[in-house]
Specification:
With 206 residues, the protein is mostly helical. It is built from eleven helices and no strands. The longest helix has 18 residues. The protein is elongated and about 55 Å long.
Length: 206
């Protein structure tokens, strides 16, 4: 399917998609995105609803007892490693960056628990900086199904998408695919019969 046609269809059917994670500051979104690894956004929002009321982010988390953080985020999975990363990340923000997220991808990637995906989420959502395209499990799956990549490597997938998708759509493109992946293009059994891309998708079974 021509990328222009795909973008026009996604834009028409998903005109108002936004980030599914709840946050009020770049620092909160950074924490929420770290927690979202191997966890649903719905579960993260339940956890952060309490977490952001309990702690000032990042100051309080930088000082909090690691066991207390583990208890607070346990239901997100991999909580020991996530707690360690959250505390370390917040300590650096407080010590080096005046407790603020710096809109620089290299600075962000050097924070504990932050990779390119998380950095792209924060830069795009909070600062409207398009350094790349967020590749999560939905984007990975749909990019392959739509024939936009032949790779399972998130770095290669991002490069393939960046090469095809105009830069002005980089931030919103992942939201479109994530929303579509949560809708008809499900992981185990896609509902191709209900999909507005069924006539053009190379993976359509309908």
């Amino acid at each position: 399917m021509p990328i222009k046609k795909l973008i026009n269809l996604l834009k028409r059917y998903y005109p108002d998609v936004t980030c599914a994670l709840n946050y009020s500051t770049p620092e909160e979104l950074l924490i929420a995105t770290i927690l979202s690894a191997q966890c649903t956004d719905k579960r993260v929002n339940i956890v952060t609803d309490k977490l952001f009321k309990k702690y000032q982010i990042p100051q309080d988390l930088a000082l909090a007892d690691i066991k207390e953080i583990e208890k607070d985020i346990k239901s997100t999975g991999f909580y020991k490693n996530k707690a360690k990363n959250l505390k370390a990340c917040c300590q650096v923000l407080v010590a080096k960056y005046e407790a603020k997220v710096v809109p620089d991808i290299e600075v962000l990637k050097n924070l504990a628990g932050v990779g390119r995906k998380t950095a792209n989420v924060v830069l795009g959502e909070c600062f409207q900086i398009a350094e790349g395209i967020v590749v999560d499990t939905h984007v990975k799956r749909l990019a392959n199904r739509l024939g936009l990549t032949a790779s399972d490597n998130p770095i290669i997938i991002e490069r393939d998408l960046m090469r095809q998708v105009p830069k002005k759509h980089w931030i919103i493109f992942s939201h479109w695919l994530i929303h579509h992946g949560r809708g008809p293009c499900k992981a185990r059994k896609p509902h191709c019969e209900d999909c507005f891309l069924k006539k053009d998708c190379p993976s359509s079974t309908f």
